[in-house]
Design a protein that fits this description.
Layout: E1 9-12, E2 17-22, H1 29-35, E3 45-48, H2 50-54, E4 63-65, H3 67-72, E5 77-78, E6 83-86, E7 94-96, E8 104-106, E9 110-115, H4 121-130, H5 132-136, H6 149-153, E10 156-159, H7 162-201, E11 221-224, E12 229-232, E13 236-239, H8 240-243, E14 247-249, E15 261-268, H9 270-273, E16 278-279, E17 284-286, H10 288-292, E18 304-307, E19 315-318, E20 323-324, E21 328-331, H11 336-352, H12 366-370, E22 373-376, H13 379-418
Parallel strand pairs: 3-8, 15-20, 16-19
Antiparallel strand pairs: 1-10, 2-9, 3-4, 5-8, 6-7, 6-9, 11-12, 13-22, 14-21, 15-17, 18-19, 18-21
């Protein structure tokens, strides 16, 4: 490959920004309050937030506005490939808007940036992402760091010719498109699995002995005193620990011992679970020595990890033998047929039980977690459900593992392409 360093030129973003805007560009606080009401029920448009980008999830955990509100917020409509930047807190973090099937508006605390046609928009996203540390140097504040529009406009970069920008953007975009395609496939497979779970275990229309939907075909229902509702005959109400009795609450090895960290043992924390059915990568790892210091806290591959402090109710499968921190309770599934069933059952529990979520909930201890009540089906029904889901859930896992490799490749190429260390033909 040809060295393309000779193509670089110095630029100031001010000369190339076509649009830089935010939610508050649409009017004063009182005017916004009078005209916009955020909703959690699906509506005309979504308001995209930092957490959607951090979890790489634009299918759930959304807030909505109606069509009138979307048009009122005309100065902060978001389109594919728009660059978004955190204004406060993690000020200077950069994201790019993926293609979305609903109209999208910008939530508070983000800037939206579009460049003119003298720069490649996607290239500029990759360039700014690579240089986040530089951008964050311009954030100021005592308790909360904030970056201003003027600071963003005055950022300086070196860029190659537009032709080279287009080629680099194409290389990196192709990797991102494959990652996004895998994510879309996974979301569809997970949605189909959830629909089947709801049909069988919420509506109770699992196949009866004749292959007909049980409840709709007149299957016998019995009253459960524990839940004050009817359940199918032969099903039970069980505590979680009665279904799988090996429940492990994690613990963090001493952070003062340097030799405990940066090894090959995944160490799972809440951020590693967020938005992921399968936990394929962890921010922190332990050495064998560090893991051995908490030997009773090992969880095997396919354990269900559940956050039980702060952001309570985040759920994901461990994909390797791992350990977790104390914010996570893990269900070790010794019986395969329980694995997918309990994943969806626990998701429903935290969604509908009224258990508080977020920073207002201090702790769900191991005993409370172990005593979660589950409507437990007949063995035959459970085995059929697990068999049906097995291939599609393995596909989700394989896509997640492929995305991990593609992300590593992209992140390896990214800085070298940006600084001219690797050229393009």
């Amino acid at each position: 490959m040809k060295d393309n360093k000779e193509y670089f030129q110095d630029i100031i973003l001010y000369d190339y920004i076509d649009v830089i805007t935010d939610y508050h560009s649409n009017g004063a606080y009182q005017k916004l309050k009078e005209n916009v009401t955020l909703k959690y029920e699906e509506d005309y448009a979504i308001m995209v937030r930092t957490l959607n980008f951090e979890a790489n999830n634009f299918a759930s955990n959304l807030i909505y506005i109606n069509e009138k509100e979307y048009n009122f917020l005309s100065k902060s409509k978001v389109y594919e490939n728009d660059i978004l930047m955190n204004k406060i807190a993690n000020a200077g973090s950069v994201y790019v808007m993926p293609k979305h099937n609903k109209p999208t508006s910008l939530a508070m605390n983000l800037f939206l940036i579009r460049f003119n046609n003298l720069l490649n928009q996607k290239y500029m996203y990759y360039l700014m992402k690579t240089n986040e540390a530089y951008i964050k140097n311009f954030a100021n504040g005592t308790s909360t760091l904030t970056i201003t529009k003027e600071s963003v406009k005055n950022l300086k970069f070196q860029v190659p010719s537009l032709l080279i920008q287009n080629k680099i953007a194409s290389i990196l975009s192709n990797l991102d498109k494959k990652i996004e395609l895998n994510n879309q496939i996974n979301q569809k497979l997970e949605s189909m699995a959830k629909t089947l779970y709801d049909y069988w275990f919420v509506q109770f229309d699992f196949p009866d002995a004749d292959g007909k939907p049980y409840k709709s075909s007149g299957g016998k229902m019995v009253y459960s005193e524990e839940l004050k509702r009817e359940i199918p005959e032969g099903w039970e109400i069980k505590e979680l620990a009665q279904i799988e009795n090996n429940i492990v609450t994690g613990k963090t090895p001493s952070t003062k011992v340097r030799e405990y960290y940066n090894g090959d043992v995944p160490f799972i924390s809440i951020g590693d679970i967020r938005g992921n059915m399968y936990i394929v990568e962890t921010e922190n790892t332990l050495t064998e020595l560090g893991a051995e210091s908490q030997r009773k806290k090992y969880i095997p591959k396919n354990s269900i990890c559940v956050s039980c402090i702060a952001s309570i109710g985040l759920i994901g499968f461990a994909t390797k033998d791992s350990q977790t921190n104390q914010q996570i309770n893990s269900v070790v599934c010794n019986n395969f047929e329980n694995r997918y069933f309990l994943y969806f059952a626990l998701n429903d529990y935290f969604r509908f039980s009224g258990v508080k979520t977020g920073n207002t909930f201090a702790n769900m201890n191991k005993q409370d977690f172990s005593e979660i009540l589950v409507i437990y089906p007949s063995k035959d029904t459970l085995e059929k459900f697990s068999t049906i889901l097995k291939s599609s859930m393995e596909k989700v896992l394989n896509n997640s593992l492929e995305n991990q490799k593609l992300t590593q490749l992209r992140d390896w190429l990214l800085p070298m392409l940006m600084n001219g260390q690797v050229g393009v033909k």
